[in-house]
C-alpha cells in the first residue's frame, strides 16, 4: 500500500493578524473592535466615518440581576442599552442616593485629606482611607464567622451607618451616628433577619426623610431613634418600649415601600400589618409596666404609630395614639427623662397634637380638642421668653420651618376658634399684631449650607401665610375671595419648596398645603395646587391622594353654591375623612 503523503498546510490559509488592544481608544472604537487613533475630543476614525464618537471618559457599568458584570455580556457589547442597568420607575421616583451626596463622596475620595483617627495603608485593597484595625478583644463586636448573616453584614453596615439623603461633610456629618451606631450595629445584624435588615435600611436611606421637611442633617428619626432601637437589639434584656419602636419602624418602612408601588404591593402590606400589630402589642405592654428607661422609645413609638396612619391613609386611629400619649405623659408627673433626645421627641409630639387638632372647629371633635388647647401647659413653657426652656433646643424650626411665634399663633387661633366664649376684639387685635411681627421672610436660619437655609426659609414663609389664612377663616370668617393674596403668597413658597426638593424623599407636614389649597378660588391657583400635589404623590404617602380628593370636593361644592360659605371641616365630616395633616 503506498505511503500517504504528509498533509501540507493550505497555502491559501492566512495567518491571524494580532490586533492592537483598544483599551485606550474611544468607546465607539472599542465597541466596534477597531483601532482608535485616540485623537481628542473626537477621534479621526469616527469623524471620517461620520459616526458619533462616545469619548474617553470613565464609564460605570452595573451588574445585572444575575450578578453578571461587563465581562459576562461581551457578546452583547454592540447593544448600547445593555451597558447599564437602568432603575425602574419606583426607584427613579424615590432615589436612595441624590446627586449632591454622590458628588460629595467622589470629591472626598479624590482629596488627599484624611479624617482624624484614619490612616493610609500601602498594600492591596487600600485605595481608601481606613480606620485602624479593631482589636479582637473589643467588647460587643464578636461575631460568629460562620453566621449566615455574615454575607449581609458588610452591605447592611455600609447602608445603615450613613445617611445618603443628606450632604456629606467629613467633619460634621452625623457625629452621633458614627459613635452610637457602630457600637450596636454588628450585634443587631447578627440577630436580625434579612427582611428586617432590608426594612431598617429602607428606613435609614429613604423613609425617615419623609418625617421632616427640610432635609436637615440632624434628622431625629435617624439620630435619636436609630441608636435607641440598635441598643435594644444588642441588649440581652429587650424592653417592650424599644421593641415597640423597632416594629413601628419596620411597619412604617413596609407601608411606605408598598405605597411606592402601583398598585400597592400586597406582600409589603402584609409585612407592614404584621409588624404594626407587633408594635401595638409591645406598646401596650410597655404602658402597663414600669416605663423607667423607656420614655424616649415609648414616645417615639407613639409618634410613628400616628405617622403610619398617614402613610397607610387611615382615619381616626391617630387620635387614639395622641390621646393615649398625652395621658401617658401627664401620668409621669414630671418624671420625664430630660435628655436632648427626649426634649426633641416631646416637641415633635406636641407639634403633632397642635397641628392635628387645629382643624376640629365645627366638627364632632371640637369639644375634646378645645379642652386640649385650654389645658395645655407645654405651649406656655415652650413659647415663654422667661421659661427654663432653652432657645437653642427648639428644633421645629430647622426640621419643619415652623418658627416659635408661628407655632404659638396656630395654637392661639385654634384655641380661640374652638373656645366656648367668643374672642374679644382685644384678643383678635393682639393676635393679629403678633402675626404681623412674625413674618419670617427676612429671618436668618442658621444651616450647614446656604441651600438648606433657603429651603428652610421657604418652609417658614409657607407656614406663616398658611397661619394667616387659618386666622382669617377661623376667627374672622373672611370669605375665600378676600384672602386670595395670601393663598398666592403661600403657594409661591410651596412651589419653591417642591422645586428645591425635586427627586428627593423629603415630604414633611401637609398642613400648609391643605389650608392653602382649600381656599383657592382662581382656576390658575387651583391648577398650581394640583401640581404640588402631583409632586407629593410619588413619595409613598397614602394620605396625599385622600387630601387631594377632599380638596377637589370642597372646590366642587363651592362652585355649585358660590354664595354659601362651604367649610372644609364640614365637607371632611360628610365624607368621613379624618386625616392627620402632618
UniProtKB/TrEMBL annotation:
Keywords: Nucleus. Residues 25-53 form the Zn(2)-C6 fungal-type domain. Residues 139-168 are annotated as: Disordered. PANTHER family: LYSINE BIOSYNTHESIS REGULATORY PROTEIN LYS14 (PTHR37534:SF49), TRANSCRIPTIONAL ACTIVATOR PROTEIN UGA3 (PTHR37534). It holds the Pfam family Zn_clus. One of its GO terms (cellular component) is nucleus. GO terms for molecular function: DNA-binding transcription factor activity, RNA polymerase II-specific; transcription cis-regulatory region binding; zinc ion binding. InterPro entries: Fun_TF, Zn2-C6_fun-type_DNA-bd_sf, Zn2Cys6_DnaBD. This is Zn(2)-C6 fungal-type domain-containing protein.
